[in-house]
Amino acid sequence: MDPKPYVVEAEWTGDRGGRVEVEAVKQLDFSAPPEFGGKEGLWTPEHLLLASVTSCYISTFSAISEINHFHFRGLKVAAEAVLEKVPGGFRFARITIRPRLTIDDEAFEEQSKLLLEKSKKACIISRSLSAEITMDYAIVLCDKQRIPELVS
Questions:
Q1: Are residues 59 and 105 in the same domain?
Q2: Are 2 and 71 in a shared domain?
Q3: Strand spans (E) along the chain
């Protein structure tokens, strides 16, 4: 595959915030975090980074599951980043992703673990970051009384 450029435009809107947009996608207002003088109630660059990590993980897991003919009922992914002060500023030292995978049958638990790990290693965003990426996953059996919508 040839190198693929991705372009995002951001514009300062005052104070410590701005707006980011991608062609044909709704604009997204952002600000520095309140602890760094930004406004409450807006996306921050820190949250956008974690959103990139979690959305990439979900996309990667979905693709790998499809290739492996693995069906699951649901997937939610939370992420937490640890910010540390280093010479010259701040950086994320570690990002922990916490996927919660819902499956129909415990017989697929081992395959689930393998696909969760494979997705962590294959996620383009996580692979591009210098922060340590750790994972703390949960695999849950589908509640037969309340069956979530089929994801893949």
A1: yes
A2: no
A3: 9-14, 17-21, 28-31, 74-86, 89-103, 132-135, 138-141
